Amino acid sequence: MKRKIFTMLLALSTALTSPGLLDGTSIANAETKAQPVFQPGVAEFIQGNYLGHASELPDANESLEVLKEYMRLKGSPMELEGFQSLSKTFPESRHARVGLAMAYYNEFKATGDKKFAELALQEELAAANIGLKNDKVLYVSLIKQMALDAGQPEAAEKWMKHVLSKNPDDYETLVNYSQLLKATKHADKAEKHLQHAINVRPAGNIDAHVEYAELLLDAGRYEEALLNTILIGESAYYLDFLHGYALEKLGRGEEAKEFYARAEDYSANFPFPERFMIQDSALQTNLSFEGMASIEVANPATTNLSWVTTCEAGGETIGAMRQVAWSVRQRVNRGSTYVNGSTCLYTTNSGATMNDKYANVICQSSQYSGVKCDSAKNVYSCTNANARTSTSNTVAYDVYNGLVPDPYTLYCPTGTPTSTSKCTAACSGATSNTTSFKATTPHSFLAYAHGPLWGCAINAGAVCGNGGSDNYFDYNN
Hints:
By secondary structure, the chain is mainly alpha-helical. It has three domains: 40-192, Tetratricopeptide repeat domain (Serine Threonine Protein Phosphatase 5, Tetratricopeptide repeat, Alpha Horseshoe); 201-298, Alpha Horseshoe (Serine Threonine Protein Phosphatase 5, Tetratricopeptide repeat); 312-471, no CATH class. It contains 19 helices and four strands. A two-stranded antiparallel sheet has the order 1-2. Strands 3-4 form a two-stranded antiparallel sheet. The protein is globular. The two termini are 30 Å apart.
């Protein structure tokens, strides 16, 4: 099928969104699915803030008034009281309810008082159920965590069962449900859902494989763990390590050495769990593990890059996640972008080291609104419920080192693409973290359409060319 080019969401006189902002809808379905309807003024308002993210798009019943108040209250000193009032006035507003849920959850994290976790879970479930009425499966990972914090895992389990009864192949729900079951000592049930998740997973997403491998290794089922393999051409350094661990446990040291070697550099960026460190192992000497007294993370830039990738595109396709990471890499290596003689995208990529440059770009104001940065310009969490995973870590590592091409152009810093699939190809050359190609015209990797901010509107469409739903994803920059 000929590739469709999706265009940015522009200020329209109608109350429809751009065809680009589809919530996980494939191009084939895009031609038949009715576009979501916004209340007057909402389409214009969500340009330039994270309500433009696919997972955050307002529902048809949410007014401009409630959304403006939602944005005003988030993170404010009056957050809790404000959202209590807003949700009481607009009980059917998903954003009012999720705003109150997060306000309660912030209180829980600040005080440790479980009653706030219980209230947060109650409101998060209310918001998620509003989403289900609009055919959106949202907030799955946060519901899992809130339920565990509240000591009410059965509430999350009941909700996830309901979701899977209607959407049995929903990957995010399957993975999070299995994590919930593992946390509550129901590994047998978790295994079943992980096997299903592996069968329906998006290309490149290795999280279900990792969860399943860990489950098998924790149970001492080493031979079975070795059968848990990914597709040819996919990156899975942590899974390579887990296979090496299984081989060493089976006494197959020479084979284990090969798998460990593949994961060695990656572990310096993303240390492995302590429970997989084998006492006095001569084979694991060059690997890094969490909690090691001598450990010093080799590259904070990759950690920040993983955070921004999951904050902006967690739950999206592998091509979409690479696109976020590549947009950061381009800004770090190219700086501000000039189009027709004027600054179209102003980037703060200053710094003596690559770590400094990445921190400044990722934490630059009004760029990646999905991230929360501390005073040292390190990302510590997302504004949404997303968290770093093995997949986002792998994407960050691959993009930082130039091991996978820019999904928009198939450009490789060194070597050539291994295939014509822009979303999943690798690069044949050596690693490189400093080269980015020069473009004479703006592309989707450069900026969101922020005409008022930068004086130019940039079409961010067709970021991947395989005809899948990742032909468009939305991120704020």
